[in-house]
Amino acid sequence: MSASRIVVDVVYALPRRQVIRKLALPEGSTLADAIRASGLAGEYPEIASARAGIYGKTVPAGTALRDRDRVEIYRPLRADPKEVRRTRAEKKRAKE
Questions:
Q1: Spatial distance between the Cα atoms of 11 and 4, rounded to a whole number of angstroms
Q2: Of the candidates 54, 19, 56, which has an alpha carbon nearest to the alpha carbon of residue 38?
Q3: How many structural domains does the chain have?
Q4: 63: containing domain
């Protein structure tokens, strides 16, 4: 009898396109296993230091996956959202 398998998508969004890899993995595989099996780290070295999650929620690399999970690899933010809002508010106040 063969081991049970799960199917997951591993997604990495670039500024102008999205790379999606559909994988069949052994049941009990982790988020880190899926990223490794996707081969994306070899194509995009910046992934090594990236955060990742499942369906928009950041989770630890050792989190076990379930069938049909969507593993998402997040790019680092270019700017702190709080700082951007603060700068925008300051500019608006200066115009008034």
A1: 23
A2: 19
A3: 1
A4: 5-95
Cα–Cα distance, 66 to 34 (Å, whole number): 11
Amino acid at 8: V
Would you give per-residue pLDDT tens digits along the chain (96 residues)?
457 999 999 999 988 999 999 999 999 999 999 999 999 999 998 888 889 999 999 999 999 999 999 999 998 766 677 877 888 888 888 877
SS3 of the chain: helix, strand, coil, percent, to 5: 35, 30, 35
**Residue 77 CA from chain centroid, whole number:** 13
Helices (H), 1-96: 31-38, 40-43, 81-95
CATH code of the domain in which 86 resides: 3.10.20.30
